[in-house]
Amino acid sequence: MIKRSETRSRDWLVNQEGQCQPRPSSRDWNLIRENYYLHQFLSEILELLTHAREAEEEWDYLPQIRMRVRQLVTNSYWLRTQYLDPDPKTGVAVQTLYDEIGYPLTVQTVTFAPGATSSIHNHGTWGVTAVLKGQEKHTFWRRSPAPECPHRIEPVGEKILATDQIISFVPEAIHQVESAGDEMTVTFQIYGDTQPRSRFQFDPILHTAKPF
User: Fold this and answer.
1) How far apart are CA 156 and CA 139, in angstroms?
2) Is the pTM of this model over 0.85?
3) CATH code of the domain in which 130 resides
């Protein structure tokens, strides 16, 4: 049974066991700024991560990061209107919003055509996704290794996110994304410094995991 508080939740966290848990969400009117630009947002995120104490991991700051993502979405009309159309062949388009050599964050908008589906994957780092347009279904998985199948995974559950909802992930979280509904889905996404050796694409039939 879904709790009533969960149906109203706008923020979510997916842990390494594939459990999608509701999290408190900041109220929009507390986040409104006269001017709030992408460079301010990125500077605040980097400052958060720079001041992480030795006993903490970057993803301990996901509540603060989700709040700043919501603040950016609330105050940035351009973010909700400037995106690429899906590629006719793949059904997906990725627009990088900021990048330079050695920059520790991935910042992008991603567009999915109706029905487009991603592979089953993790990110090897923390991540936050805000739905800007449409609906997006996430299917969650967890590792379930066996002696003969060390990369075996099993499905845990799913969640359909609508516009204005935000979902966040710890590095070990495994999911698959599908554009739900009849219109394309547009999301804003930010990720920490990805470790290539920790990011995988999973095959639940062959029980394999290969670099993604």
Assistant:
1) 8
2) yes
3) 2.60.120.10
